[in-house]
């Protein structure tokens, strides 16, 4: 797994821009948010009311997007 829920959102956005459409599609608009620099994926997503299952699903989708792009 490339992206984990313990990673800072800002770092994921910088390192894996192909994950951005997945976030936007899930209704998570972290791009440009100042909190993205200090919050982990798990912290930020929980602040938006997402469950552990939803977080795991979004992280898996982001990893799929990264994997596709690397091919």
Low-pLDDT residue intervals, each spanning 5 or more residues? none
Which structural class is indicated by helix and strand composition?
Answer: mainly alpha
**How is the main sheet built?**
none
Order of helices and strands: HHHH
Into which percent range does the helicity of residues fall? 40-55%
Overall residue-averaged pLDDT value: 89
Shape by Cα distribution: globular
Radius of gyration (Å): 11 Å
Q: Whole-Å distance between the termini?
A: 15 Å
Proportion in β-strands? under 5%
Number of domains: 1
**How many strand segments?**
0
Short description:
With 71 residues, this protein is mainly α. Helix content is 55%, strand content 0%.
Keywords:
single chain, 71 residues, mainly alpha, 4 helices, 55% helix, 0% strand, globular
Break the fold down into its secondary structure elements and pairings.
Blueprint: H1 9-15, H2 20-25, H3 41-47, H4 52-70
Tell me what you see in this structure.
- With 71 residues, the chain is mainly alpha-helical.
- It has one domain.
- It contains 4 helices and no strands.
- It has helices at residues 9-15, 20-25, 41-47, 52-70.
- The longest helix has 19 residues, at 52-70.
- The radius of gyration is 11 Å and the shape is globular.
- The two termini are 15 Å apart.
- 21% of the residues are buried.
- The model has no long low-confidence stretch (mean pLDDT 89).
């Amino acid at each position: 797994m490339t992206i984990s829920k313990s990673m800072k959102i800002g770092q994921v956005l910088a390192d894996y821009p192909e994950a951005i459409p997945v976030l936007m599609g899930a209704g998570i608009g972290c791009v440009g948010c100042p909190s993205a620099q200090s919050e982990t994926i798990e912290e930020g997503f929980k602040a938006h009311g997402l469950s552990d299952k939803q977080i795991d699903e979004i992280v898996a989708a982001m990893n799929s997007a990264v994997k596709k792009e690397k091919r």
